[in-house]
Input
Amino acid sequence: MSLSAASLSMLARVIARHGGAGGDDLATLAEAATERHFEKGETFLAAGEQARFAGLVVDGIQGEFYVLANGTRKAKWLAMPGDVFGSLEDLVRAGPALTTIEALSDGTVLCMPYARLRAMAAEQARWAAFLLSLVEDLYRKKSEREYALLMLDAPARYQWFLDRFAALEGALSQEVVASYLGISAVHLSRVRGARLGKTEGKGEGA
Output
């Protein structure tokens, strides 16, 4: 299956960002990738399945969740256009997935078999460097979120969230945003209300 122009463009950007060599590498990854269109609520990975694919968001939003027995979702990660996702923990462990990955909006994802990426990395140094760069980038981003959750209060966490996801906030439910920030939906409403009040107060004093 040939990839759309939008998917090829996004794939080329990711290759360039992580040290790929351009045309030849683009052709190699494009040949191995599958383009999938997701509707909001459709699952990329369900808990209990075996994780086999890494994904690249071309457009839309994907969310990784732990799902409790009562159906409550705990947001683990959010992936927006240009982000690579796929629950590295489940891919590496190669057992039944602990994570559910769900489309939070309609969108397009490039799916790549993780075993194929590992085999490419084992065969050629440039692909090993590429995969290492992807993993290090994901680790850095998740470490930033860990710092925000452990070291920042709720208003500062919300500001951190806006700095990264401002363009997507309106597309995410309050439940998802609150869970991602490690607070309740009620607390999130208070933080937003206090922020709005400060903004209006500044406007009145101007």
Summary: The helical segments are 5-17, 23-32, 88-93, 114-123, 125-151, 154-165, 174-181, 185-205. The chain has a mean pLDDT of 90.
